Amino acid sequence: MNIKTKYFKDADGRDHFGIKSYRYTFDYGERIHYTISNLFKGNAELSNTVLRFLNENWRVVTEEFGQPVVDYAMNVTIETAKKFFDAVPYDELLYVPIPKY
């Protein structure tokens, strides 16, 4: 992950750390193994059949659906971090002088 940061002042003139932009890359590694239980409530046979299919075809399934899932997770993470940095002034996070901006 590559994050470009920024500093800004809030309405009270306090400095805050922020995220200007981010980029990331990822890979799935050598193998994905899904562990899902009760996928189809009350139908263990169907759940196990689908789970077996997912694990036997993990690469196709992951390449098809993995990117949107990872994108969503990264977006939620970054948006949560932005809210945190908006709420907590820099001097409450670090005891290091803020760089000139």
Automatic annotation (TrEMBL):
Q: What species is this protein from?
A: Papilio xuthus (Asian swallowtail butterfly)
The cross-references to Pfam families, in alphabetical order and at most eight, read:
JHBP
State the name under which the record lists this protein. Takeout/JHBP like protein
Gene3D superfamilies in the cross-refs: Haemolymph juvenile hormone binding protein (3.15.10.30)
**Which superkingdom is the protein from?**
Eukaryota
